[in-house]
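Quick one: structure for this chain?
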Amino acid sequence: MLRNRLKVLVVDDSCFMRMAIRGILAKDPQIEIVGIAADGVEGVEKAIELKPDLITMDVEMPRMDGIAALKQIMAKAPTRVLMVSTLTCEGAKATFEALEAGAIDYIPKNISDSAEAQSIFREELLVKVKLAGSSLIPMGTGIRRTALTSPAAIKKSLFSRKVNCVGIGASTGGPVALQEVLSRIPANFPFGIMVAIHMPKAFTGPYAERLNARCSLEIREAKDGDLLRPGQVLVAPGGRHTTLVRQGAGLMVKTDPTTAFPQYLYIPSVDQMMHSLAEASNGSMLGVVLTGMGSDGFKGMQFLKNKGGITLVQDETTSTIYGMPKACIEGGVADEVLPLDQIGFEIARIAS
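Got it. Here's what it folds into:
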């Protein structure tokens, strides 16, 4: 029985957090806590010794921080690592650095006296640990290369359709995947790009700034009233849902509180962004779904396909979590399925 359980190592300098995480995970019969560590040095040692299936890793720790520990673990004993991050600007920057160094995902450190906050943390921790435990182990920060297999006939039909804008959705593994995609698109790209990625409010602004510094396109967090412009990428703000509406000849961003769309579990919702963009553009758009857990994006892509738009999704081999792309593929709404390192080039090709 034990051999089938997910073996987890908990690394955190806070005794309270170690006990909180251990207490939550140990109650699940599918999970076995094989060890705890109080800092990065001990975390690296126990990762090598215990060979866990997954590690929960704090970022800020004495002796060796979580990012330094992560890099050593990925070099000496590659393991799935879930970062436990503070909901601050600095916490966001450290988290993105960790994801680029090979972490699978992150969970906001949001334990307080609030019963609701504790419940949210417990549920998110369990879901992300189980999903991360079944994901691919990252091998460094490079992108796995695979051959393009899409039939030429499909490509020709895609190019015949009109595109005026692009919508991209992602979740787990998305921060690194999106950077890979956008870095392949030139600054003179003729259309605007709208992105919805599941992130908390404190993370989307720093993430957009990070992308802007690493890509040729202009990238920033979206705000109410923004127009989708050529060569510009707008990242939907965390903590709210984003809708695109027709404004004269352009497309305008409108953000809404989560209470406006209670049917959506994930925030910001890819389905809401994609559906509204397809409606506002009358289907003259390209929809892209990248790696992520769950099925958010499927209904939006389905609506887009019915409107005559183009749909493209990431393949299983290069996805950290295959949930979102898989839902689109199995639902029959994916026109093309490509490895991550070819998606940016294909976006540029379709738009031209």
